[in-house]
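quick one
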Amino acid sequence: MSSTWHILGAGSLGSLWACRLARAGKAVRLILRDEQRLAAYQAAGGLTLLEQDLTSHYAIPAETDQAHAPIHRLLVACKAYDAAPAIARLAPRLAAGAELVLLQNGLGSQDEVADQVPHARCIFASSTEGAFREDDWRVRFAGQGFNWLGDPVNPSVPQWFDDLHDAAIPAEWTVDILTRLWRKLALNCAINPLTVLHDCHNGGLLAHLEQVSTLCVELADLLRRCGQPEAAEGLDEQVQRVILATAANYSSMYQDVRHGRRTEVHYLLGHACRAAARHGLELPHLEQLHQRLVDNLKARGLPSD
Ligand code: NAD
Ligand code: KPL
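structure w/ nicotinamide-adenine-dinucleotide:
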């Protein structure tokens, strides 16, 4: 089986992973959206990674999804709403026993991907690392963090897992990946939409802690109903700690809205509200928050799904 890391999406996280794996001498190939993006990438000559004062350049080979070589290992590093359509196009290239690592935030996109490729192994990841694009093909590693990886249906650690340690990508294999993803989703639901609606950085929510706590009570109910009691424990306290620790930062959803980009609301608050409805659970504040956010996004001309 080939040991090449194919990486779909040379955006913020995809580039961060690609550069670190390439630096460690691993075989990496980028999969770009189309011929036009490929030509632009080739003209740039590779990816540039900025880490504090260090700037490094990596001439990583790239292709489009129309190339022919089979893919054995694929890091899916696009946004949640792009993941399933991207994988549908790549499915014919996936080798028997192919493994996919899904970096998407939130929940729902992982199952959409798995439905496209029932014979591939889908490994879910939850990342607290931070990166952003300063320009095309130029990515800044902005926040140290951690990556948890796991497979909800198969606890065995993949053979390539040590590649991550070799590449200094902080990561741990966990059998509780769904708990991690649910907890992060709940944190994001309690913080991100309110920062958009109140037009503030995370610290601005210190003036709205009652509203945050009300949401945390409903989110904890939802987590318990979804079979995630551990993710529900101490949620309100952790949300308040995160608000304090990231007080000066703008949430990822706030930044998406600010830059006129589509948000991942469908896989965050949208997913939470759909899960509540499936369980017949009434969560009026969460529902109202979702509706207000959808209205706000529509008023800005942004997709609300
Ligand atoms: P991004 O928008 O910077 O990068 C996504 C890239 O995927 C873009 O370059 C886009 O052109 C590309 N893409 C989309 N469809 C494609 C296709 N069919 N073929 C090839 N390329 C395609 O996004 P990001 O910030 O790297 O986020 C990726 C995921 O990681 C999101 O779910 C996000 O929530 C999550 N995440 C990001 C960070 C971060 O710091 N950036 C941190 C934690 C989690
Ligand atoms: O993950 C986050 C985000 O902005 O997406 C934090 C900082 C935790 C806020 O929800």
